[in-house]
Amino acid sequence: TENTRFALVGNPNSGKTTAFNLLTGSNQYVGNWPGVTVERKSGKYSKDKRLTIQDLPGIYSLSPFTPEENVTRDYLLSDDYDVVINIVDATNIERNLYLTTQLIEIGKPVVIALNMTDLLVKNNIFIDTEKLSYSLGVPVVNISALKNNGIEELIAVTKKALRPEVHLHYDERFEASLTEISAVTQLVNRFELIKIFENDAKILEKISLSDEQANEIAEIVAITEKIFLDDRQSIVVNERYQYLTSLVAMVERKTQGIRLNVS
Ligand code: GDP
Ligand code: K
Ligand code: MG
User: Fold this and answer.
1) Does one domain contain both 227 and 246?
2) What domain range includes position 158?
3) Domain boundary among 103, 130, 162
4) Do 143 and 207 reside in the same domain of the chain?
5) Structure confidence by residue, pLDDT tens digits, 166-215
6) What is the ipTM of this complex?
7) How far apart are CA 69 and CA 168, in angstroms?
8) Locate the FeoB-type G domain: which residues (predicted)?
9) Is 115 among the annotated ligand-binding positions?
10) Which atom in ligand 1 lies closest to the alpha carbon of residue 117?
11) What is the CATH number of the domain that holds 219?
12) Ligand 1, atom 24: nearest CA belongs to which residue?
């Protein structure tokens, strides 16, 4: 699969560099941002080299004053990243979320890493992360970069945030077998899962399943074929057509003699 680029953004001292070091370990590259003498640090996630992580100078808002703030703003408005991990100091959320609102407005996927959560109890602070997430419309993950807590969940949630929710759902019994194939293969891409279900030679060649995985999938498919009283390829074709039949019934009205769609 292709390379995915995460940008670490947050206020100064929110813990970006601590998180960056934790994520990248020794896989770091130091350079300079073009045109300015601001140090640029990027790296690869130590547990998955396909993830590139960019540390960025701390900012309080997207109205920059300093060269460092300009670097971050220009980067955020560029196409050089796929998703923002917004590092938020949980002990100081009001000031930190001021930046968050602007990050969300940029329109790229944002995940909030609520950092320094190890200090919350001591400081008598409780944060309802579910409400926070719901209100802002972005995922929130509790972490402590200092104590190395929540980092793997943060990565998992961030990967997921890259893919918009799939609203295209087929029959629950077919969806169930896709979910099982996903569990067996650790794949999440719907296209690939469906192709595996169909026994598509090209995809199977690309992902090369182990014998054990192939056997488990054969079992899942056999059960589904029994339920549908149909073969694997026909099941997929039928599901697509059935979905489209109800979709079109919902979105299309036949007009008598009047053509609404002039193209
Ligand atoms: P940056 O300016 O955003 O890059 O922040 P740093 O990573 O340099 O961290 C600023 C300070 O906060 C340092 O003293 C870190 O050790 C500390 N820090 C970072 N993350 C945490 C955390 O999760 N908990 C606590 N208690 N301190 C943290
Ligand atoms: K700092
Ligand atoms: Mg830093």
Assistant:
1) yes
2) 4-162
3) 162
4) no
5) 667 899 999 999 999 999 998 877 888 999 999 999 889 988 899 999 99
6) 0.97
7) 41
8) 3-164
9) yes
10) 23
11) 1.10.287.1770
12) 116
